[in-house]
Design brief:
mainly alpha, 2 domains, about 80% helix, globular
Length: about 180
């Protein structure tokens, strides 16, 4: 359910694009992100950083797209978000005592520091790469191809990357079995 909730704006963007055009879809995505952010605050009495960043960038880039009637701005938004994530993961190597990925996952997974550092670098490269790939598709293919890629391509690549990360981490997770009792 959380997955659907987090991707609510992009799903509505996709459906609106298929029914209308990029400008209606952009307006719908901005409204959906506002509702998503507000609903989260009403339920939890706090904001989630990812929702705030997404809404803020959607409002700026989407607003420019609608106001200037130029889809270039909305096409840049996924790249900017991914590059901000890359910068945040990179910055976490120098701010605080642990890379961001370790801070996010160490409650569930125990492994050595070098593994966390490698994992962090993998995410940094992934975010930079997916941002570049978004620009490549946005400016070398049709608008419709980019919209399809934005939902299915980016989501599929991210899912495959996460699965790959799980396999990578599985090699380093220690199995903590309880000692067997002797009879």
């Amino acid at each position: 359910m959380k997955f659907l909730y987090d991707f609510f704006p992009i799903l509505l963007f996709f459906v609106s694009y298929k029914m209308y055009d990029i400008y209606v879809a952009t307006g719908v995505a901005i409204a959906a992100a506002a509702v998503q952010t507000g609903a989260f605050w009403l339920k939890h009495r706090r904001f989630e950083n990812m929702h705030l960043v997404t809404f803020g960038l959607l409002a700026v880039f989407g607003g420019l797209t609608i106001f200037l009637r130029d889809p270039t701005f909305i096409k840049w938004k996924p790249t900017v978000i991914n590059w901000l994530f890359a910068a945040t993961f990179l910055g976490s190597h120098w701010v605080g005592d642990k890379p961001l990925v370790e801070r996010m996952m160490s409650h569930a997974i125990q492994t050595e520091r070098p593994v966390w550092v490698r994992l962090s670098w993998m995410w940094i490269v992934f975010f930079i790469g997916i941002g570049c790939l978004n620009l490549y598709v946005a400016f070398n293919y049709s608008e419709e191809a980019w919209v399809n890629f934005k939902l299915f391509g980016m989501l599929g690549i991210t899912f495959a990357f996460v699965i790959g990360q799980a396999f990578y981490l599985s090699r380093y997770i220690e199995d903590h079995k309880e000692p067997e009792e002797e009879s």
